[in-house]
Structure formats: C-alpha cells, structure tokens
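Could you help me review a protein record that somebody else here produced? What it holds is a sequence and that sequence's fold in token form. I have pasted the whole thing underneath without changing anything:
=====
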Amino acid sequence: MHRIQLAMSFLAILLAATIAIADKGYDDPLDVSIMASTKEDDDPNQGMDLLQQQNGENQNLSLCLQRLHQYSVHHSQFIQCALDSGSILFRMCRNCAIYYSRLSQSYTQIMEENTTINQHFGLLNGLKCSQDLKYSFHVQVLLQTHKHAVGLWKSCSCNECFLQRHHQSDEWHLHENVTEFFLVLIETRKCFLHFFNKTGHVNVNTSEQLLSKAQSNNSICVQCREAYNHLTATYAMLTPRVALCGDIVYMINITRTKWINEWKCNAKSDDLTWLVIISTLAFLSPVIFYGYTTINGRKKDKAETLNTTCASNHNPGEKEPPVVDAVQS
C-alpha cells in the first residue's frame, strides 16, 4: 500500500513539472506552425514576417510556373496548327504565324524573367526562373522543346513569307509578292477546277483533292495554258528571298507536277517542233558547210587544171615550127 501511494505521488510531481514547462513556452521545434504561434509572446511581428516570406517565395515560384504553363499552351497550339496546316495542303506559314509569334513571346518572357526562387528546401535558393527552367536537368527540356519548334518554322523558310521578321508582335504582314502570287494561283486553280468541279464552286483549300483525280486531258492544257504560264511567270519574278517561302514552294511544285507529269501538258509544246528543227539545222550546218566547201573546192581545182592544160596548148606567144615542102627539095 505504501508503494502505491509513493508511485501516485511521483506521477503527480511529473504531471506538475510538465504543466510548468508548457506554461514557459517550450514547444516542438519540428512544428513550424506551433513555433510561429508561441513566439508571438516574445516578438509579435516575427511570426507574421515568416508567413509573409513564405508567401513571397511561393508567389515567385508560382509566377515562374505560370510563365512555363503559358509557354506550354502556346507551344501546343503552334504544333497543332503545324500538323493541321502542313500535312494535306501546305499552308503552315500563313496559318500558324500568330501561334509562332505567341510562342516566341512566351519564351522571351521566361528568358527575361528575373524572379529569384528561394523554395524547395533551399535547393533553388538564388536561382532565377530562367536559370531553373533552362538548366534544371541535363536534357534541358525547355531549350530542346523550343529548339524543335523554331527548327520546324525555319526549315520551311516561313520568315521569308512576311515583311514582319520579328516575333514581338502578333501582327504579321505577308510580303506583297506573296499576296500577288496566291491571287494568281487562285485564278489558275479556278481554270483547273472548271474541268473537275461541275458545280462551279471554287475552294482553293480543297482543290488539291479535286486535282488529284485529274487524268491526261488535252483540253485543260489548251484552255489553261495562259493561266499556267502567268503563274510560272509570276513565280519567276519573285525575289530570291520570297521564292523560298515554304507555302509558295509547295504550291508551285504541286502545280507543276500536276501540269507536266499527271496531265502531260507542256507549256512549251508549241515550240517543241521548231526547237527540234533548229537544233537539227544547227547540228547539220557544219556538215553541210564542209561538204559544200569540199565539193566546190574539187570542182574549182579541176577547172583550174583544165584551164592550165588548154593554155599550154594554145599559147599565142610561141612560134610554130616551119613546114618543109618535100616536093621543092
């Protein structure tokens, strides 16, 4: 019984000591929220400063991630447009310029972002948003992703289609020569479609599918030759830079392929006969010339030989020998 009373007394003393320690403000150092609340008794502003610092760090990180998310949206839009506009009938440069412009602007904003990140348990302390996104891993996902998009745009020489060469604005203006080329192309395609689309409805975007059904047709070669020649002449007048525009290169190539290979038309067919005749005469002219010269030379030599012989037999400067009369002697 005495032992039980002694144990109860010890527990009472231990409980009292625990309560006293709690009253003095000792707390769990692993619990940040408790630490902030209990130390307000010593410094009322210290807990608020810590919370504001955490909110600021989270805001910086959030801004960085917001830039990245914005870039990913614009990148996705550009790639989707490139797939839609560059697969069937190539028009990627004209259709996707605005998405490429937004993509470039988003990338520039990330690279120029000076926000310092102090988060992730200090692992990113001192790094700027652009540094973290550029060098966060050895594969450099952001750089490689942007490099792929820029390479796709440049591989088609899309910049050559526009007067606006910078990507800091959504305003893209087609070069006047590009506009002129596509106006002439529309008229040329109208002539082509006259032979395949009986409804008279002209849709340049679907003309490729209609033209793919074409067969060799002499009538289209005759009726549309003037329009086709106008198109090729317009292309020939383009400046070297504009002539590289991906949309133009595709359209002139596919039109020439249809005209020459599939429909068996030739814009120079009328001149082909004369070309053959002139080439033949040019080839045979040396033969004819040397043959004529040889024959004429032989005739001339023969005539000179005959004249020399006749002159020697009938030369008036020589005296004939006297004739002796045998009878008189």
Observations:
- Confidence is low (pLDDT under 50) at residues 13-42, 44-57, 199-217, 323-329.
- The longest strand covers residues 116-117.
- The CA atoms of residues 13 and 98 lie 78 Å apart.
